## 1
Amino acid sequence: MTLQQLQYLVALAESNSINQAAQNLFVSQSGISKAIKQLESELGFPLLERSSRGITFTSRGTEFLHDAYSLIKQFHTMQDHYLQTEPQGMITMSITSRYYIFVAKAVAKMANLLKEHNYFIRLQEGKVSDIIQDVATRRSQLGFISYYDTNAEFIQHELERFNLEFHSLCSNQLHVFLSKNHPLAKEPNITLSMLSPYPYIFYDGGNDPYGYTEEVFFPVHPQKSIAVSDRSSMLNIIRHSECYNLGSGWLLEGYSESDLITRPLSLPADTTMQVGWITKRGYMLDAECEQFLKFCQEALDDCCTGSL
């Protein structure tokens, strides 16, 4: 097993195409295929299922991929730490988060606070698995995630597996994000059956196991759905269509579009989100991280649901 083989596997997972992975890595398709087949031979089990429709990861392949991600990110973290010299007095912060507006506002407030200093702040938004891997490999000091009762056991197991701690910030009822011109905009409460005629838009979880996703109340057999990978696309599509998304329901002046609204989602089961931050177990926060968390709490206090 080599680092190059793991890099090829990760690139393949991120592009979901041998052709695209080869282009991204500036290598041949045959080189990637040969390397992965050699890795499968060495491991003694298939990582991929190959068909005329393309490739998908096997269940063991998905498990192996998560560990490969961890090793690759740890390698890059070591590179960043040992091969790059930071300027004298540089303040650095690294955060990985779900698509939370309160985190974006906290970063803006940190930038204003540190304007007299040299600093580098890295904010990466993405999948829950990426957040856990970034914090576990110390690529990020803080990670921001949420979970529900339905996937709490899975998330807690993963945090234990990677020696991470969850610190709660708040809890919030599940809401529906809609355009103010949506046919359901005037409804005080919305049910899944009311949403069934409309397109469901959600963040693409890639090859992540179901327990990682925040889309835990994914409508059963949605007839119309759109998967996106960034917040801007999500919000713009909702604004200009009858699409809807399920999430926190938070709106924030200056960070949310004024033509978006949110409504509570009525379900028989508890739909409370537990929102918080994760760190390595026993990790001592520095002064900048402590201040950033205070800004996060302040931004959460400023969030509202309903409309701006």
## 2
Amino acid sequence: MSLAGKTLFIIGASRGISLAIALKMAAEGANVTVAAKTAEPHPKLERTIYTAAEEIEQAGGKALPLVVDVRDEDSVKGAIDKTVETFGGLDTVVNNASAVQLTNVQKTDMKRFDLIHQINTRGTLVTSKFAIPHLEKSENRHILMLSPPLDMREKWFAGHTTYSIAKYGMSLVVLGLAGELRGTGIAVNALWLRTVIATTAVKNLLGDDAMMRSSRSPQILADAAAAIFAKPAREFTGNFLIDDTFLAGEGWMDFDQYRMDLSVPLTPGFLVPEDIPAPAATGPVEA
């Protein structure tokens, strides 16, 4: 299905993966609400909702930048209502607001624990909740979470229990909502990354130049998201997808185009189940 004229509400779209998805949608003629807290540039993360909106307009879409605190349900509801008022409807929601804390329980401050769960799990649920009445009026309606397949193994929790619980919390919302909304025609799916993705946050906050070189471009997730949104919603829901495996199933053959440096092996992502193998065209991934 064509994405031209469709309206997307994307949480966290000022930069990174969400911005890549927004730009992909804009290139196909979509309207995009850039919903995030970043009205002012961060010292290490320069982009804001306003710079993102400019890029979306330049890419061929229409943009609505809105300052939204996903922890505040009135802020979320108001932004969704403003989106519908501005563009005349709502077709797709992307939940990708995510706070990170890769520490063990002993080193995790409880205020930080609360923040992470308010943003990741609760924010996903609240955004979806207020979007549903508007999505029900769309011809092809999708909710997409950037969250992992549910794979309850000790290794995915030990050392970073707080973050893992929060990301799996987003996936549990997928599982529950897919069942609740199956009869309405609203598709609810999860998309996750095979490898580390080259974003400014990874470079400045989590990794370094070496990790960036062993990463993939956010474009792989943007292409995967667009392929999901183009599917008939009633026929494609309740799926937990890994970017390259899903794209390979859709006919993608060239995954080298996403690699930042072909001379180094890819760094594997986090929370990727072993029973979802990479397609043969993926290229070398570090053990």
## 3
Amino acid sequence: MTFLPAEKLCLSIVVLLAIIDGSLIALWGVSVDAAGYAPLIGIGVGTILVGQFYRVIRKDERLALAAIAVGIFVLFTLTGSILNYLLLPIQFPVIDGALSRADAMLGFSWPSLIHWVADFPSFSAVLNFVYFTSLPQMMIVILVLSFVGDDRALHRFLVTGLLGALLAMLFWTFWPSFGTSAYYVLPEEIVQRAQLAVTPAYGAELKRLAQDGVAFLSPRDTLGLIAFPSFHTVMACMSVWFMTRSAVLLVPTLLLNILMVPAIIIHGGHHLVDVFGGALAFALAFALSGVLLRSLDAGSMTRPSASELRVR
């Protein structure tokens, strides 16, 4: 198989996470929904193999870049989410109280915002839709960068995403937080009118997991655990930054992710400061990814470019 240096780095991270996941599953005695995870693993591995076919056999580097990047993204999402769950129950005090106080200092009240948006159910429905576009946006960015042949930007995108997620998990491990929905009580009528994606019942389940941990892992039951820093914000920043390569898609991507900010707070059940934390996590991950990729380039001066691979 032929992998570019950045792809090797990303795959090494995925393999390391898989080893850690397997070790912790055995150590904690956690049951796993193998039938549920198998198709997802198959998609990840399968798309990487498709990428190898197009790189080695068909000599179509654009399709190879796209398929391999999608496979890495899928496998990292799986191994990362499993590790996040295996870090439960939490071992350190939650910081939601401090985050709520920081919101108050900024003059922000999450319950007041939800009461307001409940009077505009159509607008709330739009934000609900926007909230769930984060992962599709990631796939679109991968395809755009692949098919314009910008392998360097694509790999910067991938490494930034992996580092952003790892930084979020690392911070959350020592300073856990679960967001506003786990701590604010809202009238059921308001919850229904606002059509919240993350409800108080969702928050209650997060608090249970924080105390009891997980006994059974299944992709069907996966919840977003991390409040601060908001990884949805990291993904929004990534989409906008890297979509600057497409003059056609930049403006709609920017507009979509402007709406993503209130969507994250309302439908993600986030503190306002979680968004600032996510933006900071993106900036740090982006800077670190540049350092890592420059280091890889320095250590592999004969690294073939996408254009060179296409003509071989």
## 4
Amino acid sequence: MFKKAKQSRVFQDVVEQIQDAIINGKLEPGTKLPPERELKDRFNTSRGTLREALRVLEQKGLIEIKLGVTGGAIVKRIDAEPIVESLALLIRSGGVSLEHLAEFRIKIEGSLVELAATRATKKDIEKLESIYNQAKAFFEKNDWENFLKTDEKAHTYIGTMTRNPVFQFVQKSIHDNIHQYYEEYLPMNKQRTLENLTDFEKIIDAMKANDAKTASEIMMDHVKRFSDKMQEKINNNSK
């Protein structure tokens, strides 16, 4: 499967050969790569170069390196986990401003909800109603922390309803991390949580009525209102 690496760019060639074998399906998920000594000989490279190439492949999420006698480099199933983690770190580090997130969410989540409403099955809407009822129960207990976690679950599930993995991954990575902004700039209280819950209910009603356009408009208005409130708090703090 592998051939001697081009000595002019040996490190890059090792990475590309193994990567291509995984992407093309020659190496399936769960497959264990040959031992280091064998790989080193096949690529005609040093152990140090080979190990560095394997580390790069691990960082890309293509392999998992397990230690021990039964360990080795195991091929992973390709997914968006590395992208999700990178986006999560970017949000947590403050590398993405609240204004950037709001702009992105108004444009994207509006379209995302419209698509989800168009493709929603009866089972999807029942699941969304179940999440809504969980959120309502936490609202009635004044449990803001679990309310926000349930709200996060709702947004993530709407991403799942699109049947589009790109939307799903982006939606999950944003809503797994966005609530740090609420904690800092817009702590939940009875009034704000009720407003959130009401918007959630309206979106479900629009989906039940097969009114994707209205569901989209409600989501865009929802994101803008809450983002504006947080931005106002930021502006007041900076004065």
